[in-house]
Amino acid sequence: MRRRHRPRVRGWTAGALSAGLLALAAVTPEPAVTALAETAATADNTATVFYSTKTRNWSTTYLHYAPDGRSWTTVPGTRMEAACADWVKLTVDLGSATGLQATFNDGSGTWDNNSGRNYALGTGNITVKDGVIAHSDPCAGGGEPGDGNQATVYYSTRTLGWTTANLHYQPSGGTWTTVPGVGMQSACTGWWRKDVDLGTATSMKAAFNNGNGVWDNNGGADYTLPTGVTTVAENKVTPDADAPCADEAPDTQAPTAPTGVTARADGVSVVLTWEPSTDDTGVTGYQVTRTGGTRGEVVSDVGSTVFSDRGLEENTAYSYTVRAADAAGNVSAASPAATATTGTKPSTPATGTPLGADPRKDPIYFVLTARFNDGDPANNRGGSQHVKSGNAANDDPMFRGDFKGLVEKLDYIKGLGFSAVWITPVVLNRSDYDYHGYHGWDFYKVDPRLESAGASYQDLIDAAHAKGMKIYQDVVYNHSSRWGAKGLFTPTVYGVRDAQWSWYYDEKQAGFEYDGLTAEPKSGKSYYNGDLWSTAEPSGNTCLNWGVPTGGKSPEGYTLYNCQWPSPTSGMFPKALYHQCWIGNWEGEDSRSCWLHEDLADFNTENAQVQNYLIGAYDKYIDMGVDGFRVDTAVHIPRTTWNRRFLPAIQERVAQRHGTEAARNFFVFGEVAAFVNDKWNRGSVNHSAQFYTWKERKEYSADDAKAALEMYDYEQQQGTGNQPTSTNAFLDGNSYHAPDHSRASGMNVIDMRMHMNFGDASNAFHNGKDSDDSYNDATFNVVYVDSHDYGPNKSSERYTGGTDAWAENMSLMWTFRGIPTLYYGSEIEFQKGKKIDCGPSCPLATTGRAYYGAHLAGEVKASGFSQIESASGTVATTLQQPLVKHVQRLNQIRRAVPALQMGQYSTAGISGDMAFKRRYTSGGTDSFALVTVSGGATFTAIPNGTYRDAITGDTRTVTTGTLTVPAPGKANLRVYVLDGPGRIGVDGPYLK
Description:
Layout: H1 31-42, E1 46-52, E2 62-67, E3 78-79, E4 81-84, E5 87-93, E6 100-105, E7 110-112, E8 119-121, E9 124-129, E10 132-134, E11 149-156, E12 166-171, E13 182-183, E14 185-188, E15 191-199, E16 203-209, E17 215-216, E18 223-226, E19 228-233, E20 236-238, E21 259-266, E22 269-275, E23 283-291, E24 297-302, E25 306-309, E26 317-326, E27 338-341, E28 364-367, H2 369-372, H3 403-408, H4 410-416, E29 420-423, E30 427-429, E31 440-446, H5 457-466, E32 470-476, E33 479-481, E34 493-494, E35 533-534, E36 549-553, E37 559-561, E38 600-602, H6 608-623, E39 628-632, H7 639-658, H8 660-665, E40 667-670, H9 704-718, E41 748-749, H10 752-756, H11 761-771, E42 782-783, H12 803-813, E43 819-823, E44 859-864, E45 867-872, H13 874-878, H14 882-896, H15 898-902, E46 904-906, E47 910-911, E48 915-922, E49 925-933, E50 937-939, E51 945-949, E52 955-958, E53 963-965, E54 973-978
Parallel strand pairs: 1-9, 7-24, 11-19, 28-29, 28-43, 29-32, 32-39, 34-35, 39-40, 40-41, 42-43
Antiparallel strand pairs: 1-5, 2-3, 2-6, 4-5, 6-7, 6-8, 9-10, 11-15, 12-13, 12-16, 14-15, 16-17, 16-18, 19-20, 21-22, 22-25, 23-24, 23-26, 26-27, 30-31, 33-38, 36-37, 44-45, 46-48, 47-50, 48-49, 49-54, 50-53, 51-52, 51-54
Helix pairs in contact: 6-7, 12-14
Region (Disordered): 239-263, 336-360
GO molecular function: hydrolase activity
Keywords: Carbohydrate metabolism, Glycosidase, Hydrolase, Metal-binding, Polysaccharide degradation, Signal
C-alpha cells in the first residue's frame, strides 16, 4: 500500500475516538481522508446512494435530488431499488457535477430532508442512515468466500458510537482495498462482521473506519488478523474466537416511548424538548415526526433530547411526536403529540454567517453588555437586590446596558481599532444578581433584558459583521443558576408563605413564565420566583426531610426549613444530571465534579443528556453566526469531556452550517483559571491552562465519568516533565515553519500566566515566553492585563499601575505573540484601583463593573479601524485620552504587519530586555519584524536587507546581519520591518 493511503490516526485510537461522529469535524484531515478525496476524484462521476430503511417502515423509498448546479428531479423523485437487507440504493449520473443535494420520501408525502437542510452528498458510494452520511457500500461482497483461505472478522463499535463500519485490508503480499474499504454487515448489537477470501495468504493487515474519516488503525500500527474467526474489540485482537453473536438472542425490545415532549414556538422556529427514553441495550437516537403546514410530513433524526425546527411557515400550527431507536433498529411507540403555533417571520435573517479569517488578526474588546451602554431604558431591571446593593440610590439598575446600546457604539470600538468584541453570556439568567450573565437559566433563550425592538441578538451580530467586526459569545457549560436549567431539570424548593417568608416566596401564578423582563401582574416583580417553590411536597421529591424545620433561624430570626434552598448534598438534584458535592480543593479533581458556589448548580457534564442539552443550546448561537466562544470555567470540566464531546460538537455544527473554512476559524478560548506565577499550576498539569490545548494521548474508558478520573490519574503520574511540547510559537532561526496542529484539542486559552504577572510588562514577557513550549500554539493565546474578575497577581482591583505602565503593557501585548484583549474602559483607566466586584454588598457604580455609557454620550462615527470620522459630546473627549491614542496606533501597526498578528517569534541572538523577532510566511506573504519595547536592543544573525521602523519611519540597511536600536523610552516601541512600509500612523503620547 502506498504510504499516502495509510489511514494514520496517531493518538486517535479506538477508545479515544469514542466521541464517534461528533469528533469528525474536529479531526485534522489525515492521509486517509486525502485518499478518500482522491478516490472520488478519479472515479466515474456517479454517486451510488444507499439509504437505510431499518427504522423507517416505508413500503417504497424515493430519492429526490439535484446535482450541484442543476435542477431538482420532479417530486417525489426516482424510486430506489432493493440493495440488501434494510438498504435500498440508486446510482445517479452527476455529469460534470461533483455532488448532489438529496432528500428521501415514501412517495406518499412523508419526507426525510435532513431537518430541512437537505443532504449534501458527494460521489462514489454513499450511505445515509438515520441522518448520518458515510462512505461505503454496505452490501459489498469484496473478497467473499471462495476456494482460498477464509477470514471472518468481527469488529466491536460498542464504545465508538459509529453507525456504520468499514474494513480496509491488505492480504499478506497483496494490495490494500480502496479507501474506505468494504462495508461490514451488522451482526448483533455493537458488532459488525465481514467474511474475506484471502486467497493463498494466511493473514492480512487491517484497519477500521466509520466511512467519514474516523479511523481505528491500532494506534498507527494497523491490525494483523489471521484466517479463521477473529474478534477486534477496543484494540484487542482475539484469534480463533467464538462468534460473539452466536449465543446472543436478537435484540427485539424497543426503547420506551419518550415522555415530557414540549414544543415552544419562537417566530418561525419551534424548539422541541423531551425526557430521554430507556432501553435494555441503549438508545442511539430519536426520530421526530412533524405534521402541519403545506410541506407534508417530515421525519428528522436527532441525537439529543432537543430539536430545533427552523424555517417553518408563519402563523401555522404544527404537531410533533418523538420515537426512540436502539442500535438494533428497534423503534419505540410514538410519544404523545406536542403542538406549537408559529408566529411571524423575523424581519432579520434567521441566521447569520461568521466573518471567518484567522482569529489572530483580530484584537479583542471585552464588554459586560449590561454595564456598557444603555440604548433602551425600557429593558432596564434592578432585580431583588436593587435597593440592598445601593444601585437604586444611584439610579443605576444592574441590567442597564443592552444590545441596542452596544450597536450604537460599535463605531467607538471600531474607532479604537478593535475588530472583535467579546460579550458576556446572552442566555436568559436567573438569580438575585444576574446582570453579568453567568447564572444561566434557559440556555435556549436570549435574555430579553438585553434585547429591544430592532436590536435583537441577531441584529447585534449582523450589525457587527456589517462593520467587519466579530462577536465572541461568552458561554457556560459548567453550571446553571436559580436552580437548575429550564428544559433539563429544575427542582422545587420548600417555602411557606407566612408573614416571615411572603416577601421572599412569591405566590404561584398559573400560566406566568419568568423571563427576567416581564412583571408578574400580582406581585409586580420581574424577578418573580413563584414557579420555584411549593408548600406541598412535589411528586417524585427526592429532597431529604422535605419541609421539616432545621432548628436554625435566618439572620432575621425566621424559621428555616429543609429543602428551602438547593444544596448538592440534600438529594434535591438527580445525580445523573447534577453533581452532588461542594468543592473542597480548587486544584483537585473535585473542582471538576462539585458545586463552585451557593446556587451555581453544577452540571454533570459527563452525562449524555446534559451534554445534549448544552450542545443543542449552543448550536442555536452558532447558527446565528457568532464568530467564537469564550468558555467560562473551562477548567471545571474534564479535558476528556471537552475533547470527546463539546469541542467536536462545536466544530461539527459550524462546519455543517457555515462550511469547513468557518469551522477552522471559529475561535474557542477557555478560562482555565490558574492564579499562580509558575509554569504549571502548583505542579498540577490537570489544572494548568496549557493542558487544555492538547488532545488526549491515551485511551480511556468509554464511560465519560470514568475516563475523566483515568485521565486525571494518568496525567498526574506523568507529571510536568512528561507533557507534550510544541515549537508552533517559535521561529526556526529566522525562518517561519508550518505549525503542526494535529494534536491540538481545538480549545485555545486565556494566558493566565501573563495576566497574573502584568504588574509590569517585563515580568509578563519573561513569564509568558517561559511557558510557550507547553501550549500547542501560544500564538493563539488571549492576552489581557485585567478583566471583570481579577487584576494582575490575583488583585481584586482594576489595574492601577499608572498610565505609563498601562501604555507599556499595551505596547508589549500588541507586538508579542498572542491576541491583545482590552477590558472595557481600560483605554481611559476607567475605575482604576476600584474593587472589581463586591456582589450586592456595594453599588456597582463604585466597582470595576460600573456603567460606562456616561463616557460614550454623544455621537461617534468610524471611517475605518483606528479611524474616527467624527465625534461629538462626551465621547469626543473620551477619544482624546492618551491611552486611546496609544491603542489606536498600536492597532494600526499590528493590522499592517502580519508578523505581529500571526508570526512565530524568537529571542535568539538578541540583547535587550523585551526584544524579539517575529516572522510569518504564507503564500505570497513574508513578513519579518524586529521589535523592542521601551529598552534598546541589538539583533544579530538576521537577514540582510532594508528595514523600516513602523514608529518613526527610520530606514536601516543591514549588510552584516546586525541591527542595533537605541532605547526608545518607556512604553515606546521600535518595530523594524524587513522591506516594510515605514511609518504607520501619526505620533502620539507614547509612540513617537
